[in-house]
What we know:
- The chain is an alpha/beta fold.
- The chain has 2 domains: 10-259, no CATH class; 268-413, no CATH class.
- It is built from 20 helices and 5 strands.
- It has a 5-stranded mixed beta sheet with strand order 1-2-5-3-4, with helices on both faces.
- A hairpin with a 2-residue loop joins strand 1 (21-26) and strand 2 (29-36).
- Helix 14 packs antiparallel against helix 20 (379-413) and helix 16 (343-354) runs antiparallel to helix 20.
Amino acid sequence: MTDPQDPLIDPYREGEFSGPCRVVELNGTRYTLLGTAHVSAESAEDVRRLIRSGDFDAVAIELCDSRHQNLSNPDALGQQDLFEIFRQGKAGMVAASLALGAFQQRLAEQSGIEPGAEMRAALEEAGRHELPLLLIDRDVGITLKRIYHNVPWWQRFSLFTGLLGSLLSREEVKPEEIERLKEGDVLESTFSEFATESEALFTPLITERDRYMVLRLAEQAPPGEFRNVLVVIGAGHLKGMVERLEQPLPASPRAEREALEVTPPPSPLWRAIPWIITALVLTGFAIGFSRNTELGWQLVGEWFLINGVLSALATLIALAHPVTVAATFFAAPLTSLNPTIGAGFVAAGVELFMRKPKVRDFATLRHDVTELKGWWRNRVSRTLLVFLLATLGSAAGTWIAGFRIAGALFGSAN
C-alpha cells in the first residue's frame, strides 16, 4: 500500500507521535490516520503539528454534527427549545448528553486536560489554514439507540444504571478510567466494562463506527478527490479503520452508510402494549360497574389515587413547582389511559410555564450538572428531571393500579 521511503510519509513513522499513525494510499490519495488520546495534551499538539506542516489538503475528524456543534458552541444545547425537546421525545437523549458532558468536566478537573482537546485543535487549525473539515462519525444518539436495540432486554437496565452511576458519582475518576479514555472517547470508556464482554454491545459501539467512518471518508473524500487527508480518530478505532480502508470500498458508500443509521422500530407488540393496558383497565372498570356500582367506583378511585399520588410524588422528588405537582396528580390517571400523551409531557409543560428558565440557567447548565445537586438547582435540568420522574411515576402507578384492579375483580369473583 505504502512505500516506507516516500518522503511525504517519512515524518509520520511509528514513534514520531504520542499515538499510533498509519498511512493508506488509494488511487492517488493518502489517508493519514492519526490515533489520538482524548485526554492528552500531546495528542492535541500532534494534530496541530501535522496540520501546520502544510502536507494536507483536508482534515477528517471523529465527530458527528451534534458533537461538533457542542464542541464549537458549548451553549448550543441551552439554546434549544425545551418544549420541542419534550414534544419530540428527546428529553432522555438530552439528559444523557448532559450527563456525558458532566463526566467530561469531571475528567477535565482531575486531569487538568479538557477531553476532546485534539478535536478542538483540529477544528481550530483546519479553520486557520482554510482546509475542508470532514465530520465522519455517526450521530451519538443513533449509536445509543442501536446499542439499546442490539443488547438483550435484561442487559439494558444494568447498562442504564451503570451509566448513571459512573456519570453522576462525585467520587474521583479512577486512573484506569482516564487510561481507557486514551484509547477511545467518553462514550466508549463509559461502556468499556460491558463492551469487552458483550459482542452485542461491541458491534454498534466500535465495529459499526469503524465501518461508518470509512464509508463517510469514501463519500466526502473519495480516492482522487484530495492529495492527502489527515484523519483524526481515537486510537481504539485505528486498527479497524485501516483494515477496512485496505479492502475495496463499496461502489455505493451512501447506501451502506444509511443502513448503519437505521434504528430498528419497536416491535408491533411493544407498540401495542400501551393500548392493550388501556383496554384492560377500561374493561376492568366496565366489569366492576357491571357487578355493582360501588365496586366500579372503588376501582376508578384506586386507579386515580395510585396513579396520581405516585406521579405527583415523583415530581416532588424533582422539586417541581406546587402547581406542577397538583397538575401531575390530576393529569397522570388520565394520560395513562391515553397512549398518545404522557404524564411527563404535561408535568414538564406546566413546570416550564411556572418556572421559565432564565438566561443564567442556560449559561451555567453544563457546569451545574457536574454535581448531583446542580441538576435540581438549574431550572433547565430540573425540568428534565420533572419529565423523566413523572414518566416513571406514572408508569409505576399504571402497573400497580392495574394489578390492584385485577386483584379486586379476581377476589370479588371468588
